[in-house]
Structure formats: C-alpha cells, structure tokens
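Quick question: what would this complex look like in 3D?
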Amino acid sequence: MSGKTLFDKLWKSHLVRENGDGTSLLYIDRQLIHEVTSPQAFDGMRLTNRSLWRTEANVAVPDHNIPTKDRDKGIEDPISKLQVDTLDKNCDSFQIKEFKMSDPNQGIVHVIGPEQGLTLPGMAIVCGDSHTSTHGALGALAFGIGTSEVEHVLATQCLIQQKSKNMLIKVDGKLKQGITAKDLILFIIGKIGTAGGTGYAIEFGGNAIKALSMEGRMTVCNMTIEAGARAGLIAVDQTTLDYVNGKPFSPKGELWEKAREYWKTLQSDEDAAFDKTIEINANDINPMVTWGTSPELVVDVEGEIPFSANRKFQPALDYMGLEMGVPIKDILLDKIFIGSCTNSRIEDLREAAKVVEGKKIADSIKLAMVVPGSGPVKDQAEKEGLDKIFLNAGFEWREPGCSMCLAMNADRLESGERCASTSNRNFEGRQGQGGRTHLVSPAMAAAAAIKGYFVNVTTNWNN
Amino acid sequence: MEKFQTFTGVVAPLNRANIDTDAIIPKQFLKSIHRTGFGPNLFDEWRYLDHGEPGQDCSNRPLNQDFVLNQNRYKSASILLTRENFGCGSSREHAPWALSDYGFKTIIAESFADIFYNNCFKNGILPITLDEENILSLFKKTESKPGFALMVNLDEQSLIDPSGSTLVFELEKFRKDALLNGLDEIGLTLSHAAVIRVFETNYQKKYPWLFTT
Ligand code: SF4
C-alpha cells in the first residue's frame, strides 16, 4: 500500500464519521469570520434557536468594508456601517472573540490568522471566504465555504464534505533573482488554468517551494483558489515552525514541544500516491502580468498579448481595452494598488519599498496606494521606515483592510481606469465597475508606479 | 429548504466561460445582511447600463438590451445554460441566492467551480453538468426555437425537450437526496451530536494545544 499524502493525513485526523454515501463528517478546529458572509448565518442560528458548539473555535474580524483612511471618523457608507455593526453585535451576543475595527491587531482575515497564531499547522480551518486556502501554507487543511456552511460550523463544529483528489505541483530549480512567489503562482495558473485544480487539494512541493519564506508560501496557497482548488497545502518544515513560534496565540512551553513533535509529521510520505502531478521548473519563470479578465490570462512581462485564432479572448480584450499582439511593456497605467491578502505582508512591503526607495511615482499615475494587511504589519513597516519611503515617492500609506482588492469600501477604480494590482482577481468590475486590473507582484507594481507602465524589475529597468 | 420538484422551464443561454461570482452578483450588493432580495441585481453590470447600488429601485434603470436576460423571449427563464467553470471566484453564497431569487432553479454548464457548486445545493438549485457536445446542441436549440423549454426531472436525472428527446445527467446520490428531500443539514449533523462529542474528547487529548484559545 502506498503512503499517505499530507492532505490524506489531515483529512483522517479530522474525520468524525463516514456517512456511507460518499460524504464524511469533518471536525473543524478554527472558523474565521468576517462581516460580509456571516450575518445570514447568525440569523439562521437565532431563527432555529441553536447555540454555538464551541465558542472559542471562532474568531472574527471586519475587513472588507473597512475604510483605509480617516478611520476615526467611522464608516461613512451607511450600508457598510450596518454590516460591520452587525458583525460587532453578533460577536457580542454570541461571545465570539473579535478584533474590532479599532483594535490595533485588526486586519485582513487571512493575514491576521497566521500572524496571531490563531491558525496553526494541522488544523482544519474554514472561513466564508474563498481565499481561506492561504492558511494551507502552514500545513493546515484550510478552505473557503458558503454562508450555509458557516452556520453549520457555528452550530456543529463540523462540516459534511466529500474528499477531494490529491494533486502535487512540484516546483524544482531556483527562482531567479527578483522573481517572487506571486510570479510563481501566476505562472502556475497560466499553465493549468483557472479550472485546472477543480476537485483537487493541491500540495505544493519541491526545492523552490521549500526555499520560500512563509509570506511567499501564503501568497502561493492564497491563489490556489484561482487555479480552481479549494485548498492549497505546503508541508511543515523548519521555516513553518520558526514562523509559528512565539505568535500571540500559538502554544507555549510544554504544549509547544508536544505540538512541534506532531507538526513535524505533517508531510506527505515518500511513497504517497497523487492522482495528478505537475512539474514546474522554477528557472523558467519571469515576472508575470495578467492582461485579461481571468487570472489564467497571463504572460511574462517581456511578452505580448497572445494571438488567438478563434477570438475567444475577445470579450476580455474588449473589456480591458487591449488588442492582440500588444507588448505588455506598452501598457500605460492609471493607478497602483499594493495590498490584499495575497501581498500585503511585511515582506511584500519590503520588496516594494526597495524598488521605490529614492524615486518618485510617474506624473501620469493618478493614485498609488499601499494598504498593509494588518495593524502589526503596518507598525512593523513604520518601524522600518517603509512608510516614509512610500510617502516620499508619492504613494498613499493607508490603514489595513481589503480595500481596492474588491472595492467594497471607498477605494476603487473609475470606469476605464487601469491598475497594476498585487491582489488576486482581475475579474470584470472587481476593483470598480469598468475598472481594468493587471495582477502582478509587489515589486512589479512598485516599478510600474515609478515608470507609469510595466517594466521588467529583474533588469536594469530605471535607466 | 424546500423540496426540489420536477418542473418545465424556459432556457436562457449565457454563452461565456468562466463566469465568476463577481459577475453574478457584484460586491456592492454583498453589503446586505439578508438572504433575499438579490434577484433584481443578478448580473447587475451586464444587465443594466448604469451603475447599480444596493437598495435602489431597479424598475426604472436603463437596461442593456443586448444582454440575454433582457430579451423578451427569455424573460420567464428558470433554467440557465452556460459554459465551463461557472461560478468561479469568491465563496459568496449571495451568488446562488441571487440566481434563485431571480427565478433560476437549474443551471446547466460544462463544469462548475467547487464552492459555488456546493452552495447551489444548500439553496435548492440544481446544477447540472453536461459534456461540451450536449451543451452546444442545447445552445443551438435554445437560440433557434423561441420559448425553448426543458423538463427537469431530478428523480430520474433527466432533461426532456419538447420533441421528447431525453438527456440523462450524472449526480452524486447524497446531493440528489438533499435536494429531493429538502434536508436540514444542520439538523442531520446534530443527530450525530453524541458521536461528535466522543470524537472531540479524544481529539482534545491528542491535540491539547488546540483547546487553549
Ligand atoms: S483582500 Fe481581497 S481576496 Fe483577500 S479577503 Fe479581502 S477581498 Fe477577499
């Protein structure tokens, strides 16, 4: 019999019962909650008069609707305000731990979970949010769910699930200087497509993955959902343990020792069988830029928008205001967004700051903004003087939240505006109705801010 | 949840791949704290020429006449026909809420994104997967015959067109049962409460650090 994959192991450790119809009841360790996908779940709990199964398993934070400036004035949009107030009220009445808008540790739900040690290796983690896949970077089974399932977990601490298949994406070789986890995952999505991972849990392995920092691993797992897979996974190693050690809610003392021994087993066995394996050579990858309205429509910055005989890209090109054959470096930008649960961690901000240090954003750029992923990320960046670097270059330095990743708050693109964004989705209207999004790494977004168009950050681009 | 019953409905064709949940229901409508009322804003950015905001009266908004749901022949559609990877993107259950509120009971596609697919069953919507050949043939029929309707029979897992020709679709049994019986899944899980408690006790012994916060 062949060995077990990491996903198999995590599945087994959370298996409460098999239902006999192809589904299983799975135990959930942690539910993360935000204001957008939870109100109807709490309503359901009240309607059915059910109580929480395990209160402490739930942690909440408002992030999607939160203003990123003048926060002391509160939320201006009454509908956004109602949603955040509703979260506060629900958490108060169900006694759920919440990092409120005014809390110094508030931030994007997928940034604060790992940062606080609230998401740990070996856990099963859910959230009413598709980018829950992020937490798989810590060797946890983490996936997004709908609101009905949020309610299910509140009431039962379990979910009825059907086991996914196992996919391994093995990235060997070495990423070239200046190539980031973001370029890697965009490259992978370009290769397997946005439905390539549907029905699978994807484990990322190989030397190039092992060489990534935790921040980089989170970027990769974050965008696994953009490849169609609900869960992305990376085996636990010393990098993981070093990251988790000393986080506010991670285990301490004897419990730490015990946990660490267990966490070290969280890897696929040598002889584990995967239903599908894809091999990628890290040496092949250049800075990536999306040009269409799906993350799979992506090319190398040195490339051009591809020709397609059957014109199936036409709607995307029309929306983006682009044509086949246009070199990526000819695309002019209006706005720059550095942020989102994909790329708003300290390392991302450091990379971007390195690029902009001592320079000024191009006159043609209407707005360039940096939105840190959380309060602690913002504090750390300010300690390192990164805020000054960005401000001196002409960037705006904002308060933490989802911001222009999906533009539920006041930060958005106007119709026709073109943005280099470090977020994860370039869907039509995602960053504002009629807005045009190009997904890139933080360094690429930063360089685009300086030039006003895309350049290859791995070259001598500022000459 | 209501039980899913056999019905006959007009088919509306939406011939695009990778339709994401942001397109199905744009983010500004996610600010609602209710489960209902999303129907008028289904596909908002494609359906109307102006920018939609929550709470607005949609009856006077300028319609995009080119958009398929605005064409008279599809006005009463309750079956949506589309291409691959429908419902990709965010986990928002507002997407099936909007489809259902609009009146769609069935979506036929070449494939669906996982989370969306799952969310459909929690809301009484039957997502049906067919291969490309059958999808293309349904597009042809839908576009060439105004009022083209299909009978959806979940129990027999069949789609029957007016000429009597029948297509059979695959569906996992547990999903079929959930729709046919209108199951309360939470109630069902709670019927195993004792098993969950036992599991939890053993689990806590094994992984005590997970029970400190
Ligand atoms: S940053 Fe963007 S993708 Fe991440 S949780 Fe917020 S809205 Fe979703």
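Answer marked as accepted. Residues A 63-64, 108, 110, 129, 131, 340-341, 402, 405-406, 423-424 surround iron/sulfur cluster (CB under 6 Å).
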